[in-house]
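User: Need the bound-state model for iron/sulfur cluster:
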Amino acid sequence: MRNKTFIIKTFGCKLNFSESSTISRLLSEHGYILLKDNFSSVDFYIINSCAVTEIAEKKCKQVIRHIKKHYPQSKIILLGCFSSLDNAFPVADQVDLMLGSSNKMEILTEIDNLFAENYKHKLIRASDEEAFFSSYSIHERTRSFLKIQDGCDYFCTYCTVPYARGKSRSDTINNIIRYAKEIVANNVKEIVLSGVNIGDFKTDKGENFLDLLTELQKVEHLYRIRISSIEPNLLTEDIINLVLNSDKILPHFHIPLQSGSNEILSKMKRRYTRELFADKVYEIKAKMPYACIVADVIVGFPGETEALFEETCQFISSLPLSMLHVFPYSKRPNTVAANMDDHLPNTCKNKRTSLLIELSKQKKYLFYNENDQQISKVLIENKIENEYLSGFTENYIRVKVPYDNAIINEIKTVKIQKADENGICHAELLEL
Ligand code: SF4
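Assistant: Bound-state model below.
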């Protein structure tokens, strides 16, 4: 009965990718047939959407229009952050089923219903519940994204995620360890811990993120654990010391800065000052000079004057950051910032974005070349050019080595060389 074909299209963050992967496995285990094509005529499409920016939302709407136009016989199921927000209502009549952030785990039943005779309802969104949908990605990449936490209680004034994903909640440590063992049994060597606000990980038993990391590093044959983005106020000295003393938790920190101006941080309702952020960066670098530190920055927040932007630029220039992820501020409906005065024109936001991207390139080049001739371990990943394979060092430097099928998904010791014009370092394999 279920042998129907589907394609899943995923937008947004690692969390969405881990959830899409779990949904695909669930449906495949129950007889539905996943096609890996980009677009084709299938029985149904699943769109796992993102709502972090206006552009992400637009892309999702474009895909819906494309499917409706070219594959009108395919049913469309919309889920994810965009689907959970009220601004998705206008697309409700273009899709066959919309699931919210906390009832997406019922997707198998709902898809069965969708193909049943006399199917009636299509909008069955539920959100902001206690429900936790455990998930991890596998097979798509050499690394696996393991979801440990969902939702957020911070309500930063620009952010729509707490409305889309509900309050902060975490999986249990036992579950996470069980999934980590399943991932490792599939010969995956690196796990990236994923969530909305992973530093806020907490269980009913009172365990926190440090407890989780401590337990996770005991999993046999799990060689590499990457902490994804962690809020600066939640990055404790104990966590930094654990990374310092661990041979599994990688020296790669992704810390959202968002602005180098305390005035803007306060308007964003971020829970730290630039001084606290700087303290964290210097603490990491004092203990692990080789560590990679990546910062997110939002430019063009309402009220960001030239002087305040300049303050951000100078602050970032002064810090030993390895690279930046730069995002122009995007006005999201129903957020506090959307109703603030002094929104900036796109031309100004784009100009500031370009300036910070340039600064990021300089930082990255400097960081990569500081590592010239360093010995490091690389997890060899996919083929990038005919004669090369690429992979990341423990401290997140992308390197390339001569192509050899036998070393894909192996951890190899290399000597890093200078970065090329594409921002990738050549590396000399020190073992075969
Ligand atoms: S910490 Fe702030 S920016 Fe991050 S998800 Fe929560 S509300 Fe959004």
